[in-house]
Structures are given as structure tokens and as C-alpha cells.
Amino acid sequence: MATNASLAKLFAPTGTLRASINLGNPILANADPVTGTPFGVSIDLAHAFAQRLGVPLELVVLDTAAKSVQAVNEERADFGFFAIDPVRGKEIAFTAPYVLIEGCYLVREDSPLSANEEVDRTGRRVAVGLGSAYDLFLTRELKHAEIVRAPSSPTTVATFVEQNLDVAAGVKQQLEADARQRGGLRLLPGHFMVIRQAMGVPKTRGEAAADELRAFVEKMKASGFVAEALARHGIEGAAVAPPGQG
Known about the structure:
This protein is of the alpha/beta class. The chain has 8 helices and 13 strands. The strands form 2 sheets. Strands 1, 4, 5, 6, 7, 8, 9, 10, 11, 12 and 13 form an 11-stranded mixed sheet that branches. A two-stranded antiparallel ribbon has the order 2-3. The radius of gyration is 18 Å and the shape is elongated.
């Protein structure tokens, strides 16, 4: 069984635990508009994990999921917070999810579309954040519609509007906020996917590191830590994942 000291060395070979933080998902992380200091559920979990290992924490703050994944793959960060996806899973060992988030479609008020199933048609163009969980999922699932990739998830609706696209895909809460701000937009009913947000560590760190991170996530869910963090940051519409694979 790995000791705390050996685990600390596995996770933080530099002596400082480096957490990859993605500001492109407002459910998990945001930056204070005045100070620029990041805050959110993922930051709370990162601090708690550093305390568990007994090492100092450094936040590697990035603006997209793709950059956040790359930082962990290249071991410029020691772990991170990602939507589970088989493409990412080639290099990253995931925990079970700690939060479940709905991925939804946004259209204009006068759009003829009324259901998710109507999106995948020849000639339709769908905006999605480059490298996001939605991009990876829709790249596999859409057989007829064209995917137009915005620079990041937060710029998806802007790209949708500016390029006069048919649909925007993303986090339900982000799309709802953009619809309120811009007007003339609506969400299609239901969701096209449920995003399983997890923590992940490079597979090169070995199974002991992956097992420790998995145990940490289960403890944080069971103790109420994740639910309390969601409430503290005023996050609505995201659910704490059930025990295990959820």
C-alpha cells in the first residue's frame, strides 16, 4: 500500500501539486472579474486534494478544455478536471464522475427545430467549442450535420450568431445565460448528452496514483463536500454523481 509520502511524490514530483483548471466550463471554475482569482468547485477540490497529500498547490489556469487536457498530457500539470471521454482516456486515467452536467442545443426563436433528433440533418451547421466534451461527442455522433468549431466553449454562442449557424451546442447553464443576455434564442427541450465531470491523472503516474484520486473523489461525494461546493458557488442544474461510475 502506498504511503502518503510516496503518493505525494507520485502526484507532485516537483514538490508542488499542479492542478489544471479550465475556465471554459463555468459550472466548475470562474475567475473573479476584479482580481482574476479563480474560484469554483474544481478549485475547492484541488485545494482539498493538496491538503490530503500534504503538499502546496499551484493552479495552472487555462481557458479551454483542450488546453487543460494538453497540460496534463504533457505533464505541465499533475492532475485536472475533465469530462470523461474515450479520446482523452487514452492518456488520462479518470476517476468516476463527481458532477453530472447536461449538454444542450440552442437555436433562434424562429428556428424550425423543435427536438434534439432534428439537428443531425444534411445542410445544418452546429457551433461547438473546440476540443470540448461536446466537440468530441458530436464528432463521433453527428453523421450529417456540419460541426463549426468556436475558439472556446464560452465563445460558442457568439460564433453561432456571427456566422449565422443553425445550432449551438454546450453546457446548459452557459447557453441559458447567453440566451438571456442576447434575447431571441431558445434551448431545445431535454439534452443531447450528459457530461460526466471527473478528475484525471496522467496514466504515466501509475495505477497507485489513479486509485488514490478515485478514492478521493468517492470520499468528496459521500461526505457532502461536492454538494456543499455547488451550493456555495450558486451552481444550479448540476447534480452530484452517484457513488462509483454514476
